[in-house]
């Protein structure tokens, strides 16, 4: 089983950017934590982070041709603005879980909108970086249930 864990703008600044909202763990610590969770679940994992919408769309499309089984995605600010990301996830039909480190439902009004949510099988928010590990475990179970006769 192979997963792609994707992050949008400013996630690379974890630990620096608004630690009261996003915590003090660094981006590298997030990658290490997810890599360990995937290893424990027997999942091959690849990471991708970009501050550019088009690069994220391109990577989602590439995932289709690489036969990625699942996507864990934190589109960050693009959550609230990007129909392009929504369309890309819908197009490739790879099961995806939307993740947000903070509890977006308790934040500014504009953050209540998630375009990508319509293409995802689940959303996990407000669990800090542990939400990524929860997403990995959920996605694995989701895929295993899907292949049962």
From TrEMBL:
It comes from the Bacteria. The record marks 17 as: Transition state stabilizer. Keywords: Amino-acid biosynthesis, Aromatic amino acid biosynthesis, Lyase. The keyword Lyase applies. One of its GO terms (molecular function) is 3-dehydroquinate dehydratase activity. Its EC number is 4.2.1.10. It is an enzyme of class 4 (lyase). It catalyses: 3-dehydroquinate = 3-dehydroshikimate + H2O. Pfam families: DHquinase_II (PF01220). Pathway: Metabolic intermediate biosynthesis; chorismate biosynthesis; chorismate from D-erythrose 4-phosphate and phosphoenolpyruvate: step 3/7. NCBIfam families: aroQ (TIGR01088), PRK05395.1-2 (NF003805), PRK05395.1-3 (NF003806), PRK05395.1-4 (NF003807). Belongs to the type-II 3-dehydroquinase family. Catalyzes a trans-dehydration via an enolate intermediate. This is 3-dehydroquinate dehydratase. It comes from Yanshouia hominis. The gene is aroQ.
């Amino acid at each position: 089983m192979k997963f792609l864990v994707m992050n949008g703008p400013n996630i690379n600044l974890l630990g620096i950017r608004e630690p009261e909202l996003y915590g003090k763990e660094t981006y590298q610590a997030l990658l290490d934590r997810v890599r360990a969770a995937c290893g424990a679940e027997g999942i091959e994992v690849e990471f991708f982070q970009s501050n550019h919408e088009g690069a994220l769309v391109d990577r989602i499309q590439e995932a289709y041709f690489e036969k990625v089984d699942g996507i864990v995605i934190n589109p960050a600010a693009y959550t609230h603005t990007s129909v392009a990301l929504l369309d890309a996830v819908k197009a490739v039909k790879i099961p995806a879980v939307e993740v947000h480190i903070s509890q977006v439902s308790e934040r500014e009004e504009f953050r209540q909108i998630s375009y990508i949510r319509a293409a995802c099988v689940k959303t996990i928010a407000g669990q800090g970086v542990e939400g990524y590990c929860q997403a990995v475990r959920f996605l694995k179970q989701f895929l295993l249930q899907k292949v049962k006769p």
